[in-house]
Amino acid sequence: MAKGLGRGIGALFPGESIEQSGQVEEIQLELIVANPFQPRKIFDEEALQELADSIHEHGILQPIAVRKKGRKYEIVAGERRYRATQLAGLEVIPAIIKELSDAQMMELAILENLQREDLTVIEEAEAYQNLMESLHLTQEELSKRLGKSRPHIANHVRLLALPEDVRGFMNDGTLSMGQGRALLGLKNKRRISEVANKVIKQGLNVRQVEMLVHNLNEEVSRETTQPKKKDIFVAAKETQLRDYFGTNVQIRKANNKGKIEIEFYSEDDLERILEILNLQEE
């Protein structure tokens, strides 16, 4: 079990795995439907076929978990085994029936995938966002519930502010999370897709993307103000604050006074920053 991730499942099923307790029944595949809260949208077809070949030869070694929904059964855990069983041409699958609420289904779906590291960074971000909206949780509350750090959750959710095509690049592995985070620092948000394509075409690594974004932001600044050389201390503190808040931070200093500007790109991003500052509404 991945470190820290047992807390959510353990709270629902103390001392056991979701698929380890209960009576096993053989259920017709035609009566089973996918988990409506499944955060995973991309399945490796080659890996599924390998699993199907194994199931065809050795059978299913571990039952899936389902819940009764009308005349059908919704998958709680084991969607890969279910899909592979279909590919193997079988008509039934061993399953354990659980009684779960929608909230439990949603939480278990993300926990199962996080444990297996099956989600892309965007799927993970969407899962966190959906959980917060559906269960009315703050990022801090969600982090405690899932055993993930608040910055981990915040940094993923921020990626949802990227344009749809850029999120697609991250889903298929063309862009990494680090590259996506760097692109969020662009002042001219309309250029993110254009710059993302340039990054892909030129094969830039994360550091190179950060430098490219920095240079582009400097160009934007030069269009409106005269360039001013920033002292080393201020530049170092800006970098420290950017890392802490996970967003672009500017320190504007003159005559021993000044201001700190923290950028946000959505209402959720603002809430994330306010949580860091402990200023969110009670």
TrEMBL record:
Family classification: Belongs to the ParB family.
Q: Which InterPro entries match?
A: Chromosome_partition/occlusion, HTH_ParB/Spo0J, ParB/RepB/Spo0J, ParB/Sulfiredoxin_sf, ParB_dimer_C, ParB_N
Looking at the record, the residues that make up the ParB-like N-terminal domain are 25-114
What is this protein's name?
Answer: Chromosome partitioning protein ParB
Q: What is its main location?
A: cytoplasm
A single GO BP annotation from the record? Answer: positive regulation of sporulation resulting in formation of a cellular spore
- Organism, by scientific name, is Lysinibacillus xylanilyticus
Question: Which keywords, in A-to-Z order, does the entry hold?
Answer: Chromosome partition, Cytoplasm, DNA-binding
Where found? Cytoplasm, Nucleoid
Name the GO cellular-component terms.
chromosome; nucleoid
Q: Which GO terms describe its molecular function?
A: DNA binding
The record lists the membrane-crossing segments as none
Question: From which domain of life does this come?
Answer: Bacteria
Q: Which CDD domains match?
A: SPO0J_N
Quote the Gene3D superfamilies the UniProt record gives: 1.10.10.2830, 3.90.1530.30
